[in-house]
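Bug #77: duplicate submission created two jobs. Keeping one. Sequence:
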Amino acid sequence: MPAVILQLTRVGFLILLWLFVLAVIRVIRADMRVAAASIVAEPSAKRARRQRNTRPAPAPSGPPRQLVVTAGHLAGTRIALSQNPILIGRADDSTLVLDDDFASTRHARLTLQGQSYWLEDLGSTNGTYVDRTRVSTPVPIPALTPIRIGRTVFELRP
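Kept job's structure:
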C-alpha cells in the first residue's frame, strides 16, 4: 500500500474521531441546557409580587392531624394521622403509595412516639430528606416541615 494512501487513511480516521468527540460535547451541552431550563427560575419582579400578596403562615396550633402532599404526582392528597404507623413507598400495601422512580418499595415510615411523629428511612437508595437534610436515623418531624421522597414533597399539618 502506498504511503500516501496510508497517511490519508490515518488523517481520515483522526477527522472522524474529532467529529465524534465534538458530537458528544454538543449532546452534553444540550443536556446541561435542558437541565438548567427545567429548574424553575422565577423572575425577581414576579417573586416580589408573590411575596407581597402572601400573608405570613399562621403558627401551628396543636399536634399534627394529617399528612398533606404538597408537590409531586399526588399533590393535594391528605391522609389522617393516627396511632398506626404510615408506610411510604412504591409497594401496593403502603399507606402512601408513591408512583415515583426515585422512591423505594418500602422507603420510609412515619410513627407516633409520645406526642410527636418520627420519620425513619427504611434503607432507601435515594434517601429521605427533611427540610433539605438527608435522614439517616429516626428524627422527630415538627408540623409544616417539608419532607421529600423523590419528586414527592409532603408535610404534617395540624
